[in-house]
Design goal:
Largest sheet: 2 strands, parallel
Distance between the termini: 23 Å
Strand order of the largest sheet: 1-4
Strand content: 5-15%
Order of helices and strands: HEEEHEH
Helix content: 40-55%
Number of strands: 4
């Protein structure tokens, strides 16, 4: 699966929902790059580490609910993350549209992401 492509995420989720009997998920994928590039309509780090990660989670919810029914218990969707996030300055959080602000190549501080 390519988390830089929404179509790839959709294909993976469709396949998982159709072909897997049970689903146990830990989302632990991401990228670190110092080169600015776009993927879908956002900067690639945002597409891979944020948007596609959440898209995948939402698309897998039906299979997780089905798994709960089959095992007679609760399922837990876990996201792993980095301890380094408090060090990021992230001035974009003040923008009216955070995603648009992060997608501006001329002001991107890739070493701070």
């Amino acid at each position: 699966m390519d988390l830089g492509s929404y179509a790839s995420v959709q294909r993976f989720a469709d396949r998982a929902n159709k072909e897997l009997d049970l689903l146990h998920v830990v989302e632990n994928a991401g990228i670190l790059t110092y080169d600015f590039s776009m993927s879908e309509e956002d900067e690639r780090l945002i597409t891979v580490n944020v948007v596609s990660t959440m898209l995948l989670a939402i698309l897998l919810l039906p299979k997780l609910r089905e798994t709960e029914s089959k095992i007679g218990g609760r399922t837990i969707l876990t996201f792993t993350g980095s301890w380094i996030h408090p060090l990021a300055k992230f001035p974009e959080h003040k923008a009216d549209n955070v995603f648009k602000e992060l997608a501006k190549k001329e002001s991107a501080r890739m070493t701070d992401r």
